[in-house]
């Protein structure tokens, strides 16, 4: 209900409505109250005991856990049930026991006992509530049986038993022909509580879960359930209990599932624990035009997937725990016996494809005509027999066939998105992420670069712990690239740019690329680059040349652990530089002349410089620099060395271990 409608209803109810939270400590519930809301966590024993005095109550909603230590909650509850006999709506939570007195509330239409963890059974008197329309038992986790006379509640329209531990349904449930919502049906072993009892429930709507299908003895029982005739079911979940997968006849299992075929308007289908070896033909038939989600789980005897490629609206497919499946081939995409399927491109709408826990899966065939043009997410987890070469081929074909691949805005390749045991591809909101299998990652990037040799709309490229075969990276195919992050691309030697300038690039970060030697020979012409970071590149000999003119917008420069750089900047650093961080770069630190024109510099960090380098400097090198006296951050190895050389003005502050800095005369800790 919308908040405005809720407020309007309360206003119109006037004194007939009462919320215990609005009562003071001494106030009592008015006798004329018809609709009462009580938060038990803030309810005194006096208030709770007074509820039974309001005998004209029609609605009683009790929420929260009772916290008053001096109240006989059981006695007060019995008093309420015996006195408030005109109740139409009753909601209890956290009851220890449901009393027989509840059967006297013959006017009750709505009963909610959800989250009452301690109740294991319900009293038979509940079946006297002939006017009851809604019964909610959600998350009554200890509840194992329902009253045997439940079939007498002929006006019941809504039964929610999700999260219960029911062993079987009560008998003669088919008499509840007014039921619109039945969250679950637990198949029993007897004639009158088997799956055939569903046949009388002709008005079921929404989502239905049928559990313990292993209790079906005769194939005809499944047929008499008349699942096909239930035209208003949107979601269907069929479950066999986990355990022994050995069955007397796999053909019988297939026939049972065949007779549980749903109507063609179904939107979501889940099958768990199916014991057969193959699926019936209806599963995947193109007549299911509205089906958008399919989940097949723990079908351990199955050696072949159904032909799901012909479902025209299928967007999400999850396949998990097929222990006997070794190969996915032609049958996955098209049904050879269906003449209509040959004219339909397989998986035309599929966006999410997930494979988990496929112990024996070795082969996956994806031919030129059997690709996934709308795929946004592909995840493969714990499939140890599926070889990297096979994944390489599959990923390359899928990426190269994506209808939106040229419109990808962000490409992320690496293991920083998901755990190491998972191979995954995500295309979501213009972001393509690939993780897990190194050769697959490289193929994906090559596909982006090589297909038709055209340019892409990519604005962000992240490569992390992958693409080891990549020796050079050209930015020319990504003219709109704003952010480039490369980390542990072990064989990368150069970053190239032949078509200058690159006006879109704003951030460039390269780290742990041990073989990186140089940037573009003519310089890195990126007039809008604001942040440049190069770290742990042991063979890098020089930063981009002519940075002063080619990188006029650069504001932040971070150079760490690049010992072979001879000079920090040939021709000087960009004049707009505000932040400079340098560490373990011995050669370029001997001369501080590059600091003389940095009039905008407000943040300087020099870390891990050796004692020899510090002895090279004179105090005048710093005093002559334009660095603001109030913004100084320097880490030096030894106070004695600096003390001997120092003649700086007192406005410079140093912490010689590099652990504390001073900014604007305020002490600040740093990492």
From TrEMBL:
Domain R13L1/DRL21-like LRR repeat region, residue spans: 196-321
Pfam families recorded: LRR_R13L1-DRL21
Protein name: R13L1/DRL21-like LRR repeat region domain-containing protein
InterPro entries tied to this protein: LRR_dom_sf, LRR_R13L1-DRL21
Superkingdom, taxonomy of origin: Eukaryota
């Amino acid at each position: 209900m919308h908040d405005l409608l809720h407020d309007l209803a309360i206003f119109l109810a006037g004194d007939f409505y009462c919320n215990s939270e609005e009562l003071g400590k001494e106030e009592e519930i008015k006798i004329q109250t018809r609709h009462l809301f009580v938060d038990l966590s803030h309810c005194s024993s006096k208030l709770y005991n007074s509820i039974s005095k309001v005998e004209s109550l029609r609605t009683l909603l009790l929420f929260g856990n009772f916290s008053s230590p001096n109240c006989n909650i059981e006695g007060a509850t019995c008093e309420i049930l015996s006195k408030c006999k005109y109740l139409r709506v009753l909601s209890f939570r956290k009851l220890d026991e449901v009393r027989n007195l509840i059967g006297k509330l013959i006017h009750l239409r709505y009963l909610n006992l959800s989250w009452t963890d301690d109740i294991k059974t319900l009293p038979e008197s509940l079946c006297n509530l002939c006017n009851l329309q809604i019964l909610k038992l959600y998350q009554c986790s200890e509840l194992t049986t329902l009253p045997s006379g439940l079939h007498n509640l002929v006006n019941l329209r809504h039964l929610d038993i999700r999260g219960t531990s029911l062993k079987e349904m009560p008998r003669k449930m088919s008499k509840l022909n007014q039921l619109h919502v039945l969250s679950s049906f637990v198949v029993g072993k007897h004639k009158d509580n088997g799956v055939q009892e569903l046949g009388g429930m002709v008005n079921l709507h929404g989502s239905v879960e049928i559990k313990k299908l292993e209790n079906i003895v005769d194939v005809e029982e499944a047929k008499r359930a008349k699942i096909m005739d239930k035209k208003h079911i949107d979601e269907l979940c069929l479950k066999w209990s986990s355990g022994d997968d050995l069955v007397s006849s796999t053909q019988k299992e297939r026939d049972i599932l065949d007779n549980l075929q749903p109507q063609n308007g179904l939107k979501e289908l889940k099958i768990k624990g199916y014991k057969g070896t193959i699926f019936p033909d209806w599963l995947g038939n193109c007549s299911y035009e509205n089906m958008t989600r399919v989940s097949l789980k723990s079908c351990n005897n199955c050696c072949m997937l159904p032909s799901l490629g012909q479902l025209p609206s299928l967007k999400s497919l999850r396949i998990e725990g097929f222990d006997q499946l070794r190969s996915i081939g032609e049958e996955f995409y098209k049904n050879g016996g269906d003449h209509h399927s040959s004219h339909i491109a397989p998986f035309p709408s599929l966006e999410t494809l997930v494979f988990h826990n496929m112990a024996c899966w070795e082969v996956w065939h994806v031919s030129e005509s059997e690709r996934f043009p709308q795929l946004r997410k592909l995840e493969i987890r714990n499939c140890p027999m599926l070889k990297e070469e096979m994944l390489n081929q599959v990923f390359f074909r899928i990426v190269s066939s994506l209808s939106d691949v040229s419109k990808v805005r962000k490409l992320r390749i690496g293991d920083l998105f998901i755990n190491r045991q998972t191979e995954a591809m995500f295309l979501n909101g213009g972001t393509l992420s690939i993780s897990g299998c190194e050769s697959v990652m490289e193929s994906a990037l090559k596909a982006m670069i090589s297909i038709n040799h055209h340019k892409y709309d990519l604005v962000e490229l992240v490569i992390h712990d992958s693409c080891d075969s990549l020796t050079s990276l050209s930015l020319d195919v990504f003219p709109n690239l704003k952010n480039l992050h490369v980390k542990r691309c072990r064989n990368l030697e150069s970053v190239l740019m032949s078509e200058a300038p690159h006006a879109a690039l704003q951030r460039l970060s390269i780290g742990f690329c041990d073989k990186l030697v140089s940037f573009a020979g003519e310089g890195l012409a990126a007039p809008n680059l604001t942040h440049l970071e190069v770290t742990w590149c042991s063979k890098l000999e020089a930063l981009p040349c002519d940075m002063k003119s080619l990188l006029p917008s650069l504001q932040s420069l971070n150079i760490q652990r690049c010992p072979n750089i001879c000079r920090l900047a040939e021709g000087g650093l960009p004049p707009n530089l505000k932040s400079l961080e340098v560490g373990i770069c011995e050669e370029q630190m001997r001369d501080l002349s590059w600091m003389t024109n940095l009039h905008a510099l407000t943040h300087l960090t020099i870390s891990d410089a050796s004692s020899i380098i510090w002895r090279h400097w004179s105090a005048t090198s710093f005093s002559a620099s334009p660095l603001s006296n109030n913004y100084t951050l320097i880490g030096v190895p030894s106070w004695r060395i600096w003390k001997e050389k120092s003649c700086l003005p007192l406005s410079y502050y140093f912490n010689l271990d590099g652990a504390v800095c001073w900014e604007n005369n305020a002490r600040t800790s740093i990492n």
